[in-house]
Design a protein that fits this description.
Blueprint lengths: L2 E8 L2 E10 L4 H13 L4 E12 L1 H15 L4 E5 L3 H10 L7 E2 L2 H6 L3
Parallel strand pairs: 2-3, 3-4, 4-5
Antiparallel strand pairs: 1-2
Helix pairs in contact: 1-2
Length: 113
Amino acid sequence: MDLSLSTRTVGDRTVVEVGGEIDVYTAPKLREQLVELVNDGNFHLVVDMEGVDFLDSTGLGVLVGGLKRVRAHEGSLRLVCNQERILKIFRITGLTKVFPIHTSVEEAVSATD
């Protein structure tokens, strides 16, 4: 399965909608998108993972890398996910302590860190 990416602006946040599988083959596409957004001055990102069917360690690495990039600019990276099988990956790896994870884009956009 391929990876679909689209971006939109909601308030002062840039929302990246991700669909499909984030794995060793598709993760570079997501990495490129996150790098491009940060290089363009978008430091407050929301990654909407509602359409993600699969996430592996490569995908986790890309998200952690994105978080490091935005934090270097005093930014933030929030995740939107309420699929139990994807949330379980974040719990097992301890990344629920690293990423703010929200149940909707609206919640992520209005949250304060």
